[in-house]
Amino acid sequence: MLVADRTAAVLGALPSAALRLITARQPGSWPVGESFPGLFANPRDEAPGGWNLRQSFYMATLLLVLSVTLLGAYLVWRDVRRELRMGEMRAQFVSSVSHELKTPLTAIRMFAETLRMRRWNDEQTQQEYLDTIVNESQRLARLVDNVLDFSRIERGKKIYNLKPVSLAEVVRAAARAVQYPLGQQGFRLNAEVEDGLPMVRADADALEQAILNLLTNAMKYSSDAREIGLRLCRVDGRARIEVSDRGIGIPPEEHKRIFEKFYRAPTRENQLIPGTGLGLTLVEHVAKAHGGTVMVESQAGQGSTFSIELPLGDGK
To answer: How would you classify the pairing of strands 227-235 and 188-193?
Structure first.
């Protein structure tokens, strides 16, 4: 809502306060007449210190002008402050996206040039280089997909293709997609998938992307820990997908804000970890679009567990 709209909305309530001052009946006054219901005249107009209709009107007008001025100044200050904050967050977002795009692009170019110059010792080394190029390309594609999805959400154009899917297959596909980068960084993924869950109506690609966002975050914020958990189970008639790590954790006061767009918890550790501040925003949007929720359990220094809960149905 614009500042002018907010001001107009508040001003609608001010005249009643001013009118009460104008129409306040003083001792010894009488009604002005039928044409001015509620207004009273004071016979002591000439008395020193007398409170009459004219003085009441001037006082109420002054109060109204001061209220409008102060209110308008506050609303403008608040909007400017919010815009400055959003501008700063957008600038950080652009910087983070540029950095995250550059990292896989650099790796792709380096290994591609190495292959072109035939600088490898054996076929196994060549295969490792090719695997790196493929996985870095997939990483780059996921980042671009995140940005595009966010843009569609902002414009209200994001569409989910809902059809019967197996959550077990979606979770296993996400696990396979991160297997190579997990191995490259020395992580161990403990996956527990409960089979036999009913089919659900869902967008398999969107759900897989949401799980990959959680797994990628777990890798980023694991610090020296190298163990990540991925679990699919049934809880109270709902399907739950959990991703847990033993990393730096999140202070409780930040649990709600981490799902805001562009927001990243202002901790010292976070300053050293690249990120766009979009991953969890997209996870929450995907969960809600499927009639579900996303939750976090975490303490600073004790790791984090993110859970996506989805309603189970017949999948038809």
So the answer is: parallel
pTM here is 0.65
Residue 284's closest CA among 256, 311, 253?
A: 256
Structure tokens at 215: 């797994």
In DSSP terms, 305 is beta-bridged to 244, 297
Query: What are φ and ψ of residue 46, in 5° steps?
Result: -90, -5
* Amino acid at site 7: T
Q: Virtual CA dihedral for 241, 245, 251, 252, nearest 10 degrees?
A: 30
Of 176, 184, 170, nearest to 104 by C-alpha is 184
Range 195-214 average pLDDT: 92
The span from the CA of 289 to the CA of 122, in Å, is 49
Amino acid, single-letter form, for residue 61: T
- Of 313 and 306, the one with more pLDDT: 306
**φ/ψ of residue 226, rounded to 5:** -130, 40
* Residue of 263, 188, 257 whose CA lies nearest to 219: 188
Phi-psi region of 33 (alpha: psi -120 to 50; beta: other; left: phi over 0): left
Distance (Å, whole) CA 264 – CA 275: 8
